[in-house]
Write a structure and sequence with these properties.
With 489 residues, the chain is mostly helical. It has one domain. Helix content is 78%, strand content 1%. It contains 21 helices and two strands. Strand 1 and strand 2 form a beta hairpin. The longest helix is centred in the last third of the chain and has 35 residues. It is globular and about 70 Å long.
Length: 489
């Protein structure tokens, strides 16, 4: 029972998903609107239990790790921190999806897939064994493949789902291939035991092959260039609430898995993967920002911006100091609030354009549809402004504090050149973010004032609150991120 107690958040998420799936059979499309509130309550309960688990871990002295189920799962500060990220994103998506799924015949399917994806991400965060990690990875991935193609009558959504599925399948194969080499060399799938026997990987070329395959596999989920090809089309074509889940949640699953695999299990091969991640970080942040400048689709711009943000987080692997990992982990939470909120705000504009049937209907998230948004939908425009300024690293926001910690650690480690590249990239990103703000607040509106649907408004306010709280009162978040980073050392 003690072991199940530590998995209480996951149990709540799965139970809520199953309950929603069962209830949907008996409800009419109008009554199914209640399922969104049930999903929100389930995520809130899991979020509460996850926050309480930090106190439990501290009291019992398990900050280094508490292993359950024959050491296949690890409950520690790192796992709980990333579960916090996944549940925050799930909460924002669940609230916004109440409006998205209004009077839909498929409401229960949407929420069940979303909750099962969240459950898979949470298990990945705790995975202490390669087999468990891979199975949880695939559970989350399969659920998100369906969500990306959820709008069956929309060719863009179907294309998004298909590209995501094809690239995801290839990346899963590469990841599994790399894991088999690790197992072949060490004779175990347990991450701590691989770490204890990692010297066997350095004495043979098989170790380098494993690193290359694992970087390729995880690079897909983290959306690092050149493994990013799926991301722009998928983020643009998928429903905005799903893009929010993918960019803000699913991507972090790749990072927490990579933290465990590379920093813990493959510590003996650090010189090899550290150099690779340094190159990937520079190329990813630069490519993402350069391509984002020319985008006229806001969701596509946010997709390329998301690549750049992944490049910033990947700097933690390049620097490999406790402060850098603290910054990278903190940036993962900041990015969750910023990017989840930005895609939801884009979704509100898509809703406005499609409901009014005016503007650029072929590309409902086109920049032209954001003209005068500050007068048409003040809350959405203000929220989007907060999110993009946070992404650019403007104080006092979560983005500024996370970048400050991360970039400072890079300079402290003597990698000033990498910090300069990151700062220049942040300055470049400000150009296309400021252009969006100009469209919203300077250009004249092309229509009357529109009231934001209540669920969208609440989702935006939750994300804005998170962005500002991390920027104005960063101490508790820095402390949590520091404890999480210490687990890796």
């Amino acid at each position: 029972m003690d072991e199940l107690m530590y998995l209480a958040p996951e149990i709540v998420v799965v139970a809520t998903g199953l309950a929603i799936l069962l209830a949907g059979i008996f409800l009419s499309p109008q009554s199914k609107n209640l399922l969104g509130y049930l999903a929100t309550l389930g995520v809130l309960a899991a979020l509460f239990l996850t926050v309480k688990s930090f106190e439990l871990l501290t009291m019992q002295g398990f900050m280094v790790g508490y292993s359950i189920f024959s050491d296949t799962l690890n409950i520690d500060a790192l796992s709980q921190f990333f579960k916090l990220i996944f549940l925050v994103v799930a909460l924002i998506v669940a609230i916004a999806a109440i409006k998205y799924n209004e009077n839909s015949d498929h409401t229960e399917e949407f929420y069940a897939l979303m909750l099962f994806a969240t459950f898979g991400m949470m298990i990945v965060a705790s995975a202490n064994d390669l087999i468990v990690l891979f199975c949880a990875f695939e559970l989350a991935s399969l659920a998100t493949y369906g969500l990306a193609a959820f709008e069956k009558q929309n060719p863009r959504s179907l294309e998004a789902g298909m590209k995501y599925f094809v690239f995801g399948s290839v990346s899963a194969a590469l990841m599994l291939f790399g894991m088999t080499f690790v197992y072949g060399a060490t004779g175990t799938t347990s991450i701590p035991q691989i770490a204890a026997n990692s010297g066997l990987l350095t004495s043979s070329p098989i170790g380098l092959v494993a690193v290359v395959l694992l970087i390729a596999g995880f690079g897909f989920k983290m959306a690092l260039v050149p493994f990013h090809m799926w991301a722009p089309d998928t983020y643009q074509g998928a429903p905005s609430v799903v893009s929010s889940l993918l960019a803000a949640g699913s991507k972090k699953m790749g990072f927490v898995a990579a933290f465990r695999i590379f920093i813990v299990a493959l510590a003996a091969l650090q010189p090899d993967w550290q150099f690779a991640f340094t190159i990937l970080a520079v190329v990813t942040m630069t490519f993402g920002n350069l391509v984002a400048v020319s985008q006229t689709s806001v969701k596509r711009m946010l997709a390329y911006s998301s690549l750049a943000q992944a490049g910033y987080i990947a700097m933690a692997f390049a620097v490999m100091s406790p402060l850098a990992l603290t910054g990278g982990i903190m940036y993962a939470l900041a990015h969750a609030f910023m990017k989840a909120g930005a895609f939801i705000a884009a979704g509100v504009v898509v809703w406005m354009v499609t409901s009014e049937k005016r503007g650029n209907l072929k590309i409902p998230d086109h920049l032209d549809n954001f003209k005068g948004l500050g007068k048409r939908m003040p809350l959405t425009a203000f929220s989007m402004m907060i999110f993009v300024f946070a992404l650019a690293g403007i104080p006092p926001t979560a983005g500024f504090m996370a970048k400050f910690v991360l970039f400072s650690s890079t300079i402290a480690a003597g990698m000033t050149w990498l910090a300069i590249i990151a700062i220049l990239n942040s300055a470049l990103s400000l150009f296309y973010y400021a252009r969006l703000v100009r469209y919203m607040y300077v250009l004249p509106p092309e229509g009357g004032k529109v009231s934001e649907p209540f669920p969208y408004a609440i989702a935006l306010l939750v994300a804005v609150a998170g962005v500002l709280a991390m920027g104005i009162w960063p101490e508790p978040f820095v402390e949590l991120a520091t404890n999480a980073a210490m687990v890796l050392f």
